Amino acid sequence: MKTNLAGPAAELRITNLVKRFGTAAAGANNFMAVDNVSLTVPPGSFFAMLGPSGCGKTTTLRMVAGLEQPTSGEILLNGKDITHLKPYHRPVNTVFQNYALFPHLTVHENVAFGLRRKGEPDIAKRVDAMLELVQLNDFGARRPAQLSGGQQQRVALARALINAPQVLLLDEPLGALDLKLRRQMQLELKRIQTEVSTTFRPVPPDQEEAMTMADTIAVMRHGRVEQLASPVDLYERPATAFVANFLGKSNLLEGRVTGTDGALLLVETHGVALRLPAANRPATTTNDLLVGVRPEKLHMAAAGAQLPASHNKLQATVTDSSFMGVSTQYVVRTAWQQELTVFTQNLGVDGMRARDTAVQLHWDPQHTFAVPRTGALPETEEET
Amino acid sequence: MAQAIAPLPAAASPHRPASHQPALLFRVWRAITRNLVVFYAFLALLYIYLPVIVVVIFSFNDNTGRYNFTWQGFTLKSWLNPCGVSGLCPAMVKSLQLAALSTLGATLLGTMIAFAIVRHRFSGRTATNVLIFMPMATPEIVMASSLLALFLNLGIPTGFGTILIGHILFNISYVVVTVKARLQGMNSSLEEAAMDLYANEWHTFHKITLPLVTPGIISAALLAFALSFDDFIVANFNSGNVVTFPMFVWGAAQRGVPPQINVMGAAMFIVALGLALASLAMQRRSA
Amino acid sequence: MSTVPARRGLLSGTRWMPYALLLPGLLWLALFFVTPILTLLSTSLQEGSISTGFRLTWRIANYTDAFWNYREQFGRSILYASLSTLLALVICYPLAYFIAFRAGRYKNLMLLIVVAPFFTSFLIRTLSWKIILADSGFVVRVFQTLGLLPAGGRLLATSVAVVAGITYNFLPFMTLPLYTSLERLDASLIEAAGDLYAGPVTAFFKVTFPLSMPGVVAGTLLTFIPAAGDYINVRFLGTPAQYMLGNVIDSRFLAVLDYPTAAALSITLMFTILVLVGLYVRRAGTEDLV
Ligand SMILES: Nc1ncnc2c1ncn2[C@@H]1O[C@H](COP(=O)(O)OP(=O)(O)OP(=O)(O)O)[C@@H](O)[C@H]1O
Ligand SMILES: [Mg+2]
Of A175, B89, C72, C251, which one's alpha carbon is 20 to 30 angstroms from that of C114? Predict the structure, then answer.
């Protein structure tokens, strides 16, 4: 099976990719849909692109597929430049956002389409095997209009996969499904991936999905890649304020580097000294930065309580709390009137802290990250 | 002026169930208006069918004089001898030839234009759209007389060829509009998907685009055929001594209308209805 | 994604491709539509007769003479066409509404049934009306019994018959665009409107009718234009007292061989219709007809 279906997974390298569109309002070719994107997707990896709607994910995928010509930049597959190849000369296949199944062909013919064009042998047998893989053996004679949404999606997947592409591009393929089907399809994709070992490149519709599926994630915004990293790194060490708040919530404090202490960086925030791993210092020349910590990494202690000496500490006052079952979410206010969010696990040790209670926040310096101050825009900006 | 046929209607969209219970008063009102509409539609249908019924009835008239205006008794003789009137069947053949050739020409030219408009960027788009719209905004008599003026000025003798030129001309715009609508309704991601699946431009056109646009092209061709077949005005101005079927009817109306003309009219209605019903049945089955 | 313009480019082929596709068709239109209209324009400014030949003398008076001599027929063309268009709208709107909203799964069948009669030849249909409206026919007798017509009154050879015939003959041109635009409407939108506005009548005029405007505009144009140029209905159902501009152009061109007058009248008709259509389309706010 594996030898039958699998294409040799390939490394995909994108360098300085730019795509401009002309907009009627502002004249010719001045809208940057994709703005100087560079990234490398390792062979056989499960790679996802994330970002708010309109940030350029589909446009990037279309350029990789050859459906859109880049304004500039290069796309390399296994070191070979494919930037200007016609789509039908690229060993790359796409699962379209709307599936784009051919309405006038049967499921079987849809899946067979690519093999027929390439003039490969044993088409009927291979199509049957592929339909079995996506559990649609009995649907070969149907037309796409006679399938459910989930079935259509599996046909789209089968139609792309059967060509053993070196890279499979999935553009929001799970977006149209309900939650249960989505979970099922995720598992299916994983299973199929292990079976055929193709590089997957999905654009999942929500963050959570990307976190659970991908080995590597690129977060895009305004046509740029903000950060390319593993899900853990993205979450624990976001590179920008945008990433810090796009994947989960972060508390960001304005700070200034004052020195180092071994492997730790010393930062002063509104008169409070904080420490974080020096490796987490952003690559900027200024000493101004934003210090970040995730709400669940913060511990809350009564005012005056003894705290671990190595921890970062902040004084604050509770302004709001909401009980959420496994955890409680607090909003606290610092001395300089900044609101921070704290998640505490409900271990049943202390009761809820009332409004206006003075508390101490403390956390492990290892859980602290830092991002540049530039581009730190209000969170609401990116809501779509 | 010729008559339009229905561009083959798309499959009926699924019935949308009412999502809520309207207020009682509203329901009463709606019951009244609903039946009013049904009643009204029935009257309108009667109006539409009255002339056809008369045509069919009088095709069985056993008329003796020149005129076929009063009922004189039932007979099948006109149906059994449709070509019994001299000149009728040759005119019919001429009309069919004209319709077939002009359909071929206009469908080809119009489909190409539709593709260019929907699928390509080019300068002069507005001018092109105006040029295509203009013939539809021009009364046929103006088109017919201007063509005659041209042929007179150039000393071109009128005849079969000049009618054909006119018919292709007025059909092009209708073909463009019909095919364009179909093309615009077609998602271009289907063609992109084909290219993504190793189909080159020609295969994409041949395997995906063409099959999907074909219903639109067929509707356009049927429309062109009907418009050409039924045209009197352009033919009357530019026919020379060629006689088409509508011209034959025109002449007969001055001299006396034989029941064979009614036979032809009834047959056209029956053939059109039969074809339409058959295509509808086929749509049902494939859906 | 609906705001993103259609993605072109990939299938466009070479740069000269669109021109190659356009060329034959547009050439045809240029040769056999634009040139004839220009020839007609030139003919309309000529003087002479068929025996002495015609010469271009830029005689503008051809227009004023023609217009003045045939102002009645001209007025009748516009009047009859307007009346017929209005009548056709009143007849077809409920019909199209019925098919779009009440015919359920028989929509397409109903549409075919409505359009099928128009496949019998235009001229045959009109002749059929001649039988129906004949002095001894049942329509006249019914009208006379009801007192709508005086004894000995007739329908044939009157304006009523002519307008009725024109209205009838162009019904499909009204029905199809109306149906298309009504069919696209979301029925739930109309129901919602029924809740928001007091009654269905208000709802109809506030929601359904405005939303079907593109169909109304297309239908009225497609009816008005051929109706204004028609002369067949008058010939079969009317008398010279009902002659329209089409009849004059027909006889000037083909019988009297007075080409300049016929050409001037044709150009005037075309120009008038273009102006009326332009004004109408601007008022109705739908410029997206082609
Ligand atoms: N053909 C085009 N012409 C002009 N602008 C375009 C075109 N295609 C895309 N854009 C613009 O480029 C930007 C990026 O579009 P893209 O489809 O890549 O977004 P996306 O990240 O896939 O968004 P979503 O998550 O909503 O699918 C958008 O602002 C879009 O409006
Ligand atoms: Mg997208």
Answer: B89
DSSP string, A175-195: TTS-HHHHHHHHHHHHHHHHH
What is the DSSP code (8-state) at residue A251? E
B196 touches chain A (CB under 8 A): yes
The answer to whether residue B285 is domain-embedded is: no
Interval B127-151: pLDDT, tens: 999 999 899 889 999 999 999 999 9
Q: In terms of CA atoms, which chain C residue is nearest residue A54?
A: C1
Picking from B190, B203, B287, the nearest residue to A102 by CB comes out as: B190
Number of domains within chain B:
1
Q: What is the pTM of this model?
A: 0.79
Q: Which amino acid is at C224?
A: F
| Cβ–Cβ below 8 Å for C10 and A97 | no
Q: Do B142 and C40 touch (CB under 8 A)?
A: yes
Q: How many CB atoms lie within 10 A of CB B246?
A: 23
pLDDT digits 0-9 by tens, B190-240: 999 999 999 998 999 999 999 999 988 998 998 899 999 999 999 999 998
Tell me: pLDDT of B103 over 70: yes
In terms of phi and psi (left: phi > 0; alpha: psi -120 to 50; beta: otherwise), the region of A100 is: left
Residues whose beta carbons lie less than 5 angstroms from ion ligand 2? A 58
Dist CA A357 CA B237 (whole Å): 98
Taking contacts as CB-CB distances below 8 angstroms, the residues of chain C near A97 are 1
Q: What is the pLDDT of residue A185?
A: 61
Task: Say if B223 falls within a structural domain.
Answer: yes
Q: Which of A364, A326, A322, A330 is nearest to A348 (CA)?
A: A326
Residue A203 Cα, ligand 2 centroid: separation in angstroms?
Answer: 8
Q: What is the pLDDT of residues B80-99, one digit of tens each?
A: 888 888 899 999 999 999 99
Residue B146 to residues A207, A292, C229, C249: CA-CA distances in angstroms?
67, 80, 14, 11
Q: Convert the pLDDT of each residue in C180-230 to its tens digit.
A: 888 888 777 776 776 676 577 777 888 888 888 888 998 999 999 999 999
How long, in residues, is chain C?
Answer: 290
Residue among C2, C4, C7, C10 whose CB has most ligand 1 atoms within 8 A, to mutate: C4
Residues 191-250 of B with CB under 8 A from C: 191-192, 195, 201, 204, 226, 230, 232-233, 236-237, 245-246, 249-250
Please write the tens of the pLDDT for every residue from B168-190. 999 999 999 999 988 988 888 89
Confidence band, pLDDT 50/70/90 cuts, at residue B9 = very low
Look up the ipTM and state it: 0.86
Q: What is the pLDDT, as a whole number, of residue A95?
A: 84
**Residues spanned by the domain of C142:** 86-284
What are the tens digits of pLDDT across the range A237-286? 999 999 998 888 899 999 999 988 888 999 999 999 999 999 888 887 78
Number of domains in chain C: 1
Taking the CA of residue A97 as reference, the ligand 1 atom at the shortest distance is: 27
Q: Is the dihedral of CA A188, A189, A191, A196 positive or negative?
A: positive
Residue A2 has pLDDT above 80, yes or no: no
Angle between helices C61-69 and C259-284 (to 10 degrees): 80
C-beta of C4 in contact with ligand 1 (< 6 A) = yes
Per the CB < 8 Å rule, is B190 touching A66? no
CA of A247 to the centre of ligand 1 (A): 21
Count CB pairs under 8 A between chains B and C.
326
* DSSP one-letter code for B254: H
CATH number, domain containing residue C245? 1.10.3720.10
Q: What is the CATH classification number for the domain harbouring B133? A: 1.10.3720.10
Using CB atoms, pick whichever of B196, B198, B212 lies closest to residue A94: B196
Provide the residue type at B238 as one letter: N
Domain of residue B119: give its range.
88-256
The one-letter code for the residue type at C83 is: L
Ligand 1 atom with least separation from CA of C7: 1
